[in-house]
Amino acid sequence: MRGAIRRCGLVAVLLAWALLATSCARSGTPERGAELRVQWVLPSEFPARVSLHRPGTGGESPVMRTYERGVEPMVGEAITDGVVRVELDRAETVAVVVRNPLDRPVRFWVAPHLPVPHSAEPALMIRCLCTGETYEVPAGGTWVREVQLGIRRRQAVERMTIAHVITVGDAPVLERTDAH
Description:
Order of helices and strands: HEEEEEEEEEEEE
Largest sheet: 6 strands, mixed
Number of helices: 1
């Protein structure tokens, strides 16, 4: 009789584990990794080209750097589909490259990013471009900034899109007030 009870207990534990596993799989929580799609929203008057790349190998790392006309940036291959595959709880470094074809500098800033689905924002890990800084690409040159993207295991999603709005000109300056 005790053997039958033990077998029933073991079957109940295995059944509960199987139900829990299939329930988690149905919820959309990825088991291993996820995809982050990076999108750029550019105004029609923005003259530069924006691309996403793997970080460069060896040499000086361009956390943020500008390159004069004719000097190639130290970045890796282009991520042409804009999709960064990440392991959960681990950020991936990528390089944003902005190339200026004009004979004058281009100044821009980046508005706060927008994750879609919005409910996934607590899972987003990001060191981003939207810092409130004004960036400048030299005439005929290139600007590079490394960013980090990832998804936390807690509240993870399989796919997320991060939209960045690039705005021409200087970032707005917010005045401090002493009022609380």
